[in-house]
Amino acid sequence: MTHTPDADRRSLDESSVEELDAALRIYRRLPLELLGFLVLLPVVGIGLSQLSTALSPPYGVYILGQGLLTWGLLAMIGLLLGLFWWHGRQVGRLLNEPALVASPIGGLLAGTSIIAEKAIRMDMEWSGFYGPLRPRRTIKPA
């Protein structure tokens, strides 16, 4: 019996229901994390503004011509982009989609349609707000 190197690799179309559910859990968690960023943003802004003024009154600390508040907000934007990148990469790996892994931030937007396509091929349907997939109900003719 010969063993080819590609025998262990799955086809790009193959994904299990558990992997699709895990990708949907990532999408379900994303709005909560974005809400956390929305709450954290003013806290960081006010905190850095107060810290900057406390370190060097009355004008604050400046690094390369920008205040501590500006650098903190740039760091928050970087963290937000990192969050999108990380979740896009996780979804791409779960769905076994090279396009999502190659472009995680842009692919994060298309991930739900890919999940829907793969779920339809497996005769599964969505149970609401990115909930777990369930077998599709068929109406029997009377």
Summarize the structure in short:
The chain is mainly alpha-helical and 142 residues long. It has helices spanning 17-55, 68-95, 98-102, 104-121, and strands spanning 62-63, 66-67, 124-126, 133-135.
Descriptive overview:
The chain has 142 residues and is mainly alpha-helical. The protein has one domain. The chain is 63% helix and 7% strand. It contains 4 helices and 4 strands, in the order αββαααββ. A two-stranded antiparallel sheet has the order 1-2. Strands 3-4 form a two-stranded antiparallel sheet. Helix 1 runs antiparallel to helix 2, helix 1 packs antiparallel against helix 4 and helix 2 packs parallel to helix 4. The longest helix is centred in the N-terminal third of the chain and has 39 residues. It is elongated. The N and C termini lie far apart (51 Å). The N terminus is likely disordered.
Keywords:
disordered N terminus, 7% strand, 4 strands, 63% helix, two-stranded antiparallel ribbon, mainly alpha, single chain, elongated
- Whole-number total of structural domains: 1
How do the strands of the widest beta sheet line up side by side? 1-2
Count, helices:
4
N-to-C order of helices and strands:
HEEHHHEE
Tell me the strand percentage band.
5-15%
Rg estimate, integer Å: 22 Å
Write the layout of secondary structure elements.
Layout: H1 17-55, E1 62-63, E2 66-67, H2 68-95, H3 98-102, H4 104-121, E3 124-126, E4 133-135
Antiparallel strand pairs: 1-2, 3-4
